[in-house]
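Q: What residues go here?
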């Protein structure tokens, strides 16, 4: 190209520096748009990437940085290219690729085998019913059946579903040919046939919608159903069940794919690859905003993604293949996860014997931004994820909070003012999603404090990391015993903080005999305990933990992944403090509303972070901006904590009391109580906020013993 005599090429090419070239933008643009210099380079797969800023003054267009990639189109069949462009139809997908992608993955990708990636808690899960696309009817699923899943959004008009009164009829051959199925489902059945498969699982047909017991079981098993599918069809552009899957010739509507080519002399061509489609779809499509589709993507180990404005592509544990890129008969590995931010990392990161609290927090933080038609589905849709977590969080989750460290699970915060109550009219009195659970609100969460419960953190990772700092510099102590209730007047079931009990018994101690399978050895370090623990049996091995953890044995009773409990109770103590000035952070537009607390004589006592009123109607997040100055607030103690002098540990500035001028200083450990602001409706209290109060000030208050029933 440097040697080209074409004036167009000279206008594009500006200079060459080694393997890097600088270009003007090689795609047709508006005549009055100025294109700044952009970087152009070849990678090892003969692919180049261009980043451009557009605008007369060199500013970003609409505040975005546009990124484009180009690949060579082969000029001769003998061209020796590792990866090259493929001309595709603007309206119709090459459906022969579906079967090829699946076959190539089956034959070449060891990391995509079910035995390599499916979590133990999910391996034996199978659906109850499947759609037989050959016989056009429902059939009972067999353990050996290979099936395809569909991930799509409902919405739109009410679609046809399976119910108790039509289940028998739908098992008759050709029964599905005579019912008004949603377009997305009928198109998915065609894709299954194109891929050489026979069975489809889709929730509308394969879950009997009015069989409450079986439906509850299917929802609990959702993660396993998707994980065990041979692949999942992702209807990424769909806005409702009748949107269909575009681009299937003779079956569905056209797709709209723009593919730009650029001639480089008489023998070479480059093709524009639109890598930005993923972000465009994420910002535009309903599929990315719905809560039910979150776990469907999370656990689908292989995905066939079909969309209206981009080429079809296949994503698995080992590769990403696109319709507009032709691959030879070799395996092309998936690029770095930073380049393609898909959630394939769920498998190695939660497939651990020991609980991965940071990963759980990350999953919840991302999940809680999703929307639901029914507010109570915010917990139901998380049940499948909870089932998958049983490999490590063996106590299960109680309304979204891990039972094994429930005392710390209650300490969640709204991160920003965009958080809103999922019930615009206020939480119903007997709601299955209670005020003490993060699932009652939609928006950004702050779950940093959960990491403090990770007291068993394995030694051997970088102790200077934030997890190491948190393990040694901040502590939480449970001070109340919680029970959960399925009815407000029924008996409570004790919630056992099993990991904290093991920490109390074994942390930094050689006085107590180790549990079966565990051994202890000395550990020398500048900070932390003097003893670490190892575990080994015929199937599991753990090294260098700070204390033993609970491991599920063969004789242990099975625990449900998610227990949905509307109420929890405890015996605790309460006191009142005064709401004072609002604490303003350097990011006030992002962080949740936070106020100071003072005692009756004006002494600064601590802080409180607020969430919207769960008892009052609220259409927007503006209800968080409350003026509570001077109001007496009833606070209940829920835990005790301490932190090494916060100003000496920069990471811990995430709480607004760290630099407060009136906070007690001059002692190694800053000690406090975790307190919850509650308000009552009858005998049931509801969470209004969470914060912490200086230990000496809280203990100086007139604290009253009480029985707390929290709804």
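A:
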């Amino acid at each position: 190209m440097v040697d080209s005599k074409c004036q167009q090429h000279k206008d594009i090419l500006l200079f060459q520096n080694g393997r890097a070239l600088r270009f003007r933008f090689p795609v047709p643009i508006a005549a009055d748009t100025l294109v700044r210099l952009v970087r152009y380079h070849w990678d090892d797969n003969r692919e180049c990437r261009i980043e451009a800023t557009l605008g007369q003054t060199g500013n970003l267009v609409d505040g975005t940085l546009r990124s484009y990639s180009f690949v060579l189109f082969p000029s001769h069949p003998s061209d020796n290219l590792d990866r090259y462009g493929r001309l595709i139809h603007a309206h119709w997908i090459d459906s022969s690729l579906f079967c090829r992608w699946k076959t190539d993955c089956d034959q070449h990708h060891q990391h995509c085998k079910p035995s390599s990636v499916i979590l133990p808690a999910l391996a034996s899960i199978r659906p109850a019913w499947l759609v037989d696309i050959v016989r056009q009817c429902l059939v009972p699923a067999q353990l050996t059946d290979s099936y395809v899943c569909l991930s799509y959004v409902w919405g739109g008009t009410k679609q046809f579903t399976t119910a108790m009164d039509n289940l028998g009829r739908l098992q008759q051959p050709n029964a599905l040919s005579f019912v008004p199925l949603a377009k997305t489902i009928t198109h998915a059945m065609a894709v299954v046939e194109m891929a050489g498969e026979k069975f489809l699982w889709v929730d509308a047909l394969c879950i009997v919608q009015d069989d409450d017991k079986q439906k509850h079981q299917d929802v609990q098993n959702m993660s396993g159903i998707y994980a065990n599918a041979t692949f999942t069809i992702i209807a990424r552009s769909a806005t409702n069940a009748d949107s269909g899957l575009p681009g299937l010739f003779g079956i569905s509507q056209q797709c709209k794919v723009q593919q730009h080519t650029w001639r480089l002399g008489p023998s070479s061509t480059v093709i524009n690859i639109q890598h930005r489609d993923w972000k465009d779809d994420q910002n535009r499509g309903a599929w990315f905003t719905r809560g039910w589709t979150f776990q469907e993507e999370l656990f689908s180990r292989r995905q066939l993604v079909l969309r209206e404005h981009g080429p079809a592509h296949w994503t698995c544990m080992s590769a990403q293949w696109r319709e507009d890129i032709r691959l030879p008969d070799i395996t092309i590995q998936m690029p770095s996860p930073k380049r393609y931010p898909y959630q394939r990392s769920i498998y190695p990161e939660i497939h651990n014997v020991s609980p991965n609290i940071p990963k759980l927090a990350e999953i919840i933080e991302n999940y809680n931004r999703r929307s639901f038609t029914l507010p109570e589905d915010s917990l139901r849709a998380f049940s499948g994820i909870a089932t998958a977590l049983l490999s490590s969080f063996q106590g299960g989750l109680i309304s979204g909070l891990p039972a094994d460290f429930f005392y710390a699970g209650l300490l969640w915060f709204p991160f920003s003012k965009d958080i809103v109550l999922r019930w615009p009219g206020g939480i119903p009195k007997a709601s299955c999603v209670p005020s003490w659970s993060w699932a009652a609100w939609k928006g950004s969460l702050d779950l940093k404090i959960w990491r403090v419960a990770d007291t068993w953190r394995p030694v051997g990772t970088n102790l200077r990391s934030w997890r190491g700092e948190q393990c040694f510099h901040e502590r939480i102590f449970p001070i109340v015993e919680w029970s959960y209730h399925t009815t407000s007047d029924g008996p409570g079931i004790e919630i056992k903080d099993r990991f904290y009990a093991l920490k109390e018994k074994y942390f930094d101690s050689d006085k107590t005999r180790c549990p079966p399978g565990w051994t202890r050895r000395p550990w020398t370090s500048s900070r932390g305990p003097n003893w670490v623990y190892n575990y080994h049996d015929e199937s599991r091995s753990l090294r260098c933990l700070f204390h033993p953890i609970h491991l599920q044995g063969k004789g242990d009773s099975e625990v449900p992944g998610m227990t949905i409990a509307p109420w929890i109770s405890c015996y605790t103590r309460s006191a009142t403090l005064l709401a004072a000035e609002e604490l303003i952070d350097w990011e006030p537009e992002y962080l949740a509303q936070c106020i100071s607390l003072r005692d009756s004589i004006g002494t600064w006592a601590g802080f409180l972070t607020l969430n919207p009123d769960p008892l009052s109607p609220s259409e927007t997040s503006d209800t968080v901006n409350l003026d509570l100055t001077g109001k007496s607030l009833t606070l209940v103690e829920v835990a005790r904590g301490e932190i090494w002098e916060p100003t000496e540990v920069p990471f811990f500035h995430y709480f607004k009391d760290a630099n407060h001028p009136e906070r007690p200083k001059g002692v190694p450990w800053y000690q406090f109580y975790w307190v919850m602001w509650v308000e009552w409706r009858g005998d049931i209290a509801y969470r209004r906020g969470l914060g912490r109060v200086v230990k000496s000030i809280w203990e100086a208050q007139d604290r009253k013993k009480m029985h707390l029933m929290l709804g």
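A: Context that may help when evaluating the design: The longest strand covers residues 567-582. The chain has 18 helices and 37 strands.
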